[in-house]
Amino acid sequence: xxxxxxxxxxxxxxxxxxxxxxxxxxxxxxxxxxxxxxxxxxxxxxxxxxxxxxxxxxxxxxxxxxxxxxxxxxxxxxxxxxxxxxxxxxxxxxxxxxxxxxxxxxxxxxxxxxxxxxxxxxxxxxxxxxxxxxxxxxxxxxxxxxxxxxxxxxxxxxxxxxxxxxxxxxxxxxxxxxxxxxxxxxxxxxxxxxxxxxxxxxxxxxxxxxxxxxxxxxxxxxxxxxx
Length: 227
Fold this sequence. Notes:
Layout: H1 6-13, H2 20-32, E1 50-51, E2 57-61, H3 69-72, H4 80-92, E3 112-116, H5 129-145, E4 151-155, H6 157-167, E5 183-186, E6 191-196, H7 201-204, H8 211-226
Parallel strand pairs: 2-3, 2-4, 4-6
Antiparallel strand pairs: 1-3, 5-6
Helix pairs in contact: 4-8
């Protein structure tokens, strides 16, 4: 299906029920809730991308967090990953404020759009291959509608691998393995693809990903934009 704009695409995404396991899980999480959020009304639907429709930079994560995006309805909002991501985007000039805790908090993204390879929260944060494939058309449609893209940032190896499937390079050209700060130019899409460790609590609390390391990614992105 061809979409005329990102709003039309969002309306379609949030009605998706293609993966029965994910539909059941996202709705169960939204009904049971975490004790700290028992008074919150959970989104509990597929989470669309958001940001600047004229963006030159696309950030691709893995999937909504159970009590973050699945609760708030906005990517990387209301969980520890977002608390690490948005300050970095603010420092790099891609966000108007360092906080993104809830919808309506005034957060605006500049020249950047955030999405994920899976739109529904998976059990144990582990989508199966079929679920990733089912969600791929949403990402394809977003990239098609984001006409100014020049850089895609893959947060984590799963996002990196999935981007290579569709946005790799011509036959005969070498692709780097996933590594923090690794990158390549996709002559298929005419964009740079940059790899970063995912800002998950597992990575940030163990020191695998530090704020300085994350800042280097966004410095690299800014350099590619002017290069």
